[in-house]
Amino acid sequence: MSKEFIPENHKFAEASYFEDLSIGQRFYIPSRTLRDANFSAFQAASGDNHPIHYDVEYCKSQGHPELLAHGFQVVIQTAAGAGIFPHVVGESLIAFIDQSSKFLGPVYYGDTVYPELVITDLKAQNSTGIVTVRSTVHNQRKELVLEGEQRYLVKKRP
Q1: Residue 142 to residues 7, 36, 115, 124, 135: CA-CA distances in angstroms?
Q2: How confident is the model at residue 135 (pLDDT cuts 50, 70, 90)?
Q3: Does 6 map to a domain?
Q4: What is the DSSP letter of 31?
């Protein structure tokens, strides 16, 4: 006879706490090719109607070969929840504190993006710690098109 099912125990992994993390630890986010669904969903969610993102003929008249992805459309590719980071820290994750980004190159319709988070700093506090990760997005041409930083508040081991 099997044990009673406990929904709280149905999780990706045991939580890693602040002390379990290390500088240089990498968290890949699955690659994706940005096409109609991505552009349409972003436009619907953001309300951004500028033709540089939705009118290919306008883009070409401005010297772009294809639709230009909105900068925030590129930033959201680094959402930690799209990868394993929040599952690794599990219930020790308290908050997403902040993020910053620099746009280094264009991302066009049809580009494949490769997001990644890498821990760059760990600042211990009393019962918590601040985890800083470098966020990057490369394209299929191996060009770094976005870099930034995200910070998370994580519990120390009880």
Answers
A1: 42, 23, 12, 35, 15
A2: very high
A3: no
A4: -
The values of phi and psi at residue 50, to 5°, are: -65, 135
Pick from 74, 155, 151, 140: which is nearest to 117 by CA? Answer: 151
Both tokens assigned to 97: 């504190």
Predicted local confidence at residue 103, as pLDDT: 98
Q: Which domain holds residue 89?
A: 15-155
- Please tell me the predicted confidence (pLDDT) of residue 112: 98
* pLDDT tens digits for range 78-104: 999 999 999 999 999 999 999 999 999
Report in angstroms the alpha-carbon separations of 154 from 68, 117, 128, 130, 144.
36, 16, 6, 6, 28
